[in-house]
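DUF4424 domain-containing protein: structure tokens wanted.
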Amino acid sequence: MHLHNEGLRRRMRSLTAFILSLILSMGAQAMAQSEEYQFGVRWSVNGLPSSLYMHGIMLDFAGTPSNFDRRQPVSEYIKSGKNFIDLNTFPYEYDSEHEVRISLLYWEPGQNPNTDASTAFEVVMRPGVEGADPEIVSRALVAPLQPRESEIRFVRKEDFDTLHISFDNRQPMPTWCWEEGDMLRDNEATRDSLTREYRRLHSLFAEGNNDALLAAASTRTKELALASGTPEDYVRHRFSYNMFFDNPDIYQLNDFPKEPLTLNLAADNRVAWLTTEGVQVPLRFNHVHEKGVSSKVRPYFIRRNGQWEICR
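Answer:
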């Protein structure tokens, strides 16, 4: 009888410890999920032309050799689970001093990302060093963004090279519009349909119809407000085109291109945009007093319920 009671007490203690451990684990998980961070990317290329993409959507392009250390918020391009980012370089010829560096950042809402952001992880590639591979030079194990080490690589191509970084996001995120659009086909029908939408927007720019243009981008406004934690009115104001319309002596709308445009697809073929040549775009304002300089308008579209929708 004594042995039976002692065994029962041991089992009860074990069960109690298990339940306590489960409660603590659930509590820690709930705390982790309630801690909503915002995300950014920081990158630098010393003396190389470059372009930056997330899920195939272009975030930045510098077509001439550049020396910069740049950062940009990217919460609206990051989903829960697996993500990837590509930093392309266009080398004339690498030397041993060339270095491509990219970091994923996170910070709490209300913090200043320029001064308070923490580095989740940082990857460095030295393409001019023979036999070099991308290297994770820092990593915060507590960060919500974690690199997928086996899927980080530097790919050498004919026209450009790519530092490809795959990573996991352990923080729950909204489902963004670029995840929800219809799967698009890379064909003339898709290109021609989207061209008609570009022409419609070009007509609104020609009219100086700022309200209609902002209404066309209401999805983008809502999601950028959600990602940045700022009011929609503020985001809408930041995207106002009145600067162009109020200064016709400085900005002149370029004619819509006559030649067939190039269709670009990204995000599992759910995001589309058009270009003329290279990364040049159909919607741009030429700077009257600066030859060859223009301000480009780069909408990224999804198609949902049969309609084109500005997503980013």
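The helical segments are 2-34, 177-180, 188-207, 210-216, 218-228, 232-238, 242-245. Residues 1-34 have pLDDT under 50 and may be disordered.

Cheers.
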